[in-house]
């Protein structure tokens, strides 16, 4: 199959504008989607279970009569696990353990220290009470998303984890339910879309109100998450999946072709980019892609993705490749090069960095250990992967001894009066010791 993929050269006079155009992604939903989601969210807030049932029946083509039909018990999850092949169950369990072990290293304890005056300062780290995890259903099922969203919450010590997953036409995915059982999800509801997000945010007679909602979804889910932010916390508003491969031309072209396919097959809006200083290698990768694509079950999606948003970028050298990588700030960055541990020092912006020729992004998606919930659309400039820290909150600790309060008050009083906040100043001044 012939592929028409855009090719750029960093030496072009208008390269930066071309790059900006390539990377541009409007993640804001249109007015129609906004109106639809706003109505769903408001109806769920006002009518609770009745609205959730109505929208579930309408959008997922189901025939739910009672809210009790929406929940899947732990016993049913166990039965679903039993219907999954032993080989797949073993892989899910191995992946869950690796993800858990990695995230255990992210745990941060509470801390405090004492000053000479006796004043104690510190931070109390506390897990969230209840978290909602959205898992996509419908066209594709992602048990890996269950593990990646639930395991760090478990490590953080979240009190209760509620999972929602749509089941269009009543079709339940046993692998997703098996993953929920293995991960230790407390309750599972077969609802999806904006109505599931609203139910988690506001609570209904059946679905508990949560403190934070995490997990990927379509534009309606993303819009709903943005709409309820403030009522609850959210992880991020994610755009389409992305991969940026930087290669020095020494990796097997078939490997790189398949690495680029691995993101393109997600959906038509996914983005796959190759950067290399070797123009012959770029051509070899394109040839490999054209040879390999027909064997892919999702070849039509891959083709649409590559031709719509994919690109080959020819650069002068590896230093320039690193500079462009920082501009892209990709969700997934593969450094398929010699001495990746040296070059990684030049990378400032990336969601996850895959180092070396034997580290494809696909391993990170499933079982390497680090989280695959990553910032997209350039937000790696200021955002981080999902982690234990997303399921904890921090409270400052302040204890003042009489002597410490007196000394601090002498600093606070002038600052408060400088802001014309007299009560603040006097509150502090009352603590100044008479003989100090």
TrEMBL record:
<feature type="binding site">
    <location>
        <position position="424"/>
    </location>
    <ligand>
        <name>Zn(2+)</name>
    </ligand>
</feature>
<feature type="binding site">
    <location>
        <position position="218"/>
    </location>
    <ligand>
        <name>NAD(+)</name>
    </ligand>
</feature>
<dbReference type="GO" id="GO:0008270">
    <property type="term" value="F:zinc ion binding"/>
</dbReference>
<keyword id="KW-0560">Oxidoreductase</keyword>
<feature type="binding site">
    <location>
        <position position="424"/>
    </location>
    <ligand>
        <name>substrate</name>
    </ligand>
</feature>
<feature type="binding site">
    <location>
        <position position="241"/>
    </location>
    <ligand>
        <name>substrate</name>
    </ligand>
</feature>
<dbReference type="GO" id="GO:0051287">
    <property type="term" value="F:NAD binding"/>
</dbReference>
<comment type="function">
    <text>Catalyzes the sequential NAD-dependent oxidations of L-histidinol to L-histidinaldehyde and then to L-histidine.</text>
</comment>
<protein>
    <recommendedName>
        <fullName>Histidinol dehydrogenase</fullName>
        <ecNumber>1.1.1.23</ecNumber>
    </recommendedName>
</protein>
<feature type="binding site">
    <location>
        <position position="365"/>
    </location>
    <ligand>
        <name>Zn(2+)</name>
    </ligand>
</feature>
<keyword id="KW-0479">Metal-binding</keyword>
<dbReference type="InterPro" id="IPR016161">
    <property type="entry name" value="Ald_DH/histidinol_DH"/>
</dbReference>
<dbReference type="InterPro" id="IPR001692">
    <property type="entry name" value="Histidinol_DH_CS"/>
</dbReference>
<dbReference type="GO" id="GO:0000105">
    <property type="term" value="P:L-histidine biosynthetic process"/>
</dbReference>
<dbReference type="Pfam" id="PF00815">
    <property type="entry name" value="Histidinol_dh"/>
</dbReference>
<comment type="pathway">
    <text>Amino-acid biosynthesis; L-histidine biosynthesis; L-histidine from 5-phospho-alpha-D-ribose 1-diphosphate: step 9/9.</text>
</comment>
<keyword id="KW-0520">NAD</keyword>
<keyword id="KW-0028">Amino-acid biosynthesis</keyword>
<feature type="binding site">
    <location>
        <position position="263"/>
    </location>
    <ligand>
        <name>substrate</name>
    </ligand>
</feature>
<feature type="binding site">
    <location>
        <position position="266"/>
    </location>
    <ligand>
        <name>substrate</name>
    </ligand>
</feature>
<dbReference type="InterPro" id="IPR012131">
    <property type="entry name" value="Hstdl_DH"/>
</dbReference>
<feature type="binding site">
    <location>
        <position position="195"/>
    </location>
    <ligand>
        <name>NAD(+)</name>
    </ligand>
</feature>
<feature type="active site" description="Proton acceptor">
    <location>
        <position position="331"/>
    </location>
</feature>
<keyword id="KW-0368">Histidine biosynthesis</keyword>
<feature type="binding site">
    <location>
        <position position="263"/>
    </location>
    <ligand>
        <name>Zn(2+)</name>
    </ligand>
</feature>
<dbReference type="GO" id="GO:0005829">
    <property type="term" value="C:cytosol"/>
</dbReference>
<feature type="binding site">
    <location>
        <position position="365"/>
    </location>
    <ligand>
        <name>substrate</name>
    </ligand>
</feature>
<dbReference type="InterPro" id="IPR022695">
    <property type="entry name" value="Histidinol_DH_monofunct"/>
</dbReference>
<keyword id="KW-0862">Zinc</keyword>
<comment type="similarity">
    <text>Belongs to the histidinol dehydrogenase family.</text>
</comment>
<dbReference type="GO" id="GO:0004399">
    <property type="term" value="F:histidinol dehydrogenase activity"/>
</dbReference>
<feature type="binding site">
    <location>
        <position position="419"/>
    </location>
    <ligand>
        <name>substrate</name>
    </ligand>
</feature>
<feature type="active site" description="Proton acceptor">
    <location>
        <position position="332"/>
    </location>
</feature>
<feature type="binding site">
    <location>
        <position position="332"/>
    </location>
    <ligand>
        <name>substrate</name>
    </ligand>
</feature>
<feature type="binding site">
    <location>
        <position position="134"/>
    </location>
    <ligand>
        <name>NAD(+)</name>
    </ligand>
</feature>
<feature type="binding site">
    <location>
        <position position="266"/>
    </location>
    <ligand>
        <name>Zn(2+)</name>
    </ligand>
</feature>
């Amino acid at each position: 199959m012939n592929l028409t993929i855009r090719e750029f050269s960093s030496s072009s006079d208008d390269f930066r504008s071309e790059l900006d155009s390539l990377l541009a992604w409007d993640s804001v939903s249109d007015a129609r989607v906004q109106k639809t989601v706003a109505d769903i969210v408001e109806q769920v807030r006002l009518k609770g279970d009745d609205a959730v049932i109505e929208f579930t029946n309408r959008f997922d083509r189901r025939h739910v009569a009672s809210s009790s039909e929406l929940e899947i018990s732990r016993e049913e999850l166990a039965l679903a696990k039993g219907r999954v092949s032993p080989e797949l169950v073993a892989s899910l369990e191995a992946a869950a353990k690796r993800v858990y072990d990695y995230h255990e290293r992210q745990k941060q304890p509470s801390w405090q220290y004492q000053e000479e005056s006796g004043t104690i300062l510190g931070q109390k780290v506390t897990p969230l009470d209840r978290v909602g995890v959205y898992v996509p259903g419908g066209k594709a099922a992602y048990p890996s998303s269950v593990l990646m969203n639930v395991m760090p919450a478990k490590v953080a010590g979240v009190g209760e984890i509620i999972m929602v997953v749509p089941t269009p036409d009543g079709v339940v995915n046993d692998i997703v339910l098996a993953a929920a059982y293995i991960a230790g999800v407390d309750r599972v509801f077969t609802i999806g879309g904006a109505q599931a997000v609203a139910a988690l945010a506001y609570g209904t007679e059946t679905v508990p109100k949560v403190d934070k909602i995490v997990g990927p979804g379509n534009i309606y889910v993303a819009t709903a998450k943005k709409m309820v932010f403030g009522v609850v916390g959210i992880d991020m508003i994610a755009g389409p999946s992305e991969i940026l491969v930087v290669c020095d031309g020494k990796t097997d072209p078939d490997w790189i072709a398949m690495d680029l396919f691995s993101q393109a097959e997600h959906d038509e809006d996914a983005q796959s980019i190759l950067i290399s200083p070797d123009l012959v290698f770029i051509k070899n990768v394109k040839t490999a892609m054209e040879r390999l694509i027909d064997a892919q079950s999702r070849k039509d999606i891959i083709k649409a993705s590559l031709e719509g948003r994919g690109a080959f970028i020819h650069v002068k050298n590896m230093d320039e490749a690193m500079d462009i990588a920082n501009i892209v700030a990709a969700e997934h960055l593969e450094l398929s090069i010699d001495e990746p541990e040296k070059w990684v020092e030049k990378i400032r912006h990336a969601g996850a960095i895959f180092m070396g020729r034997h580290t494809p992004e696909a391993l990170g998606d499933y079982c390497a250990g680090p989280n695959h919930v990553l910032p997209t659309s350039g937000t790696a400039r200021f955002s981080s992967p999902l982690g234990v820290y997303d399921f904890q909150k921090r409270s400052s600790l302040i204890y003042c001894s009489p002597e410490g309060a007196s000394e601090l008050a002498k600093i606070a009083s002038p600052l408060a009066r400088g802001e014309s906040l007299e009560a603040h100043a006097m509150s502090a001044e009352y603590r100044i010791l008479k003989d100090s």
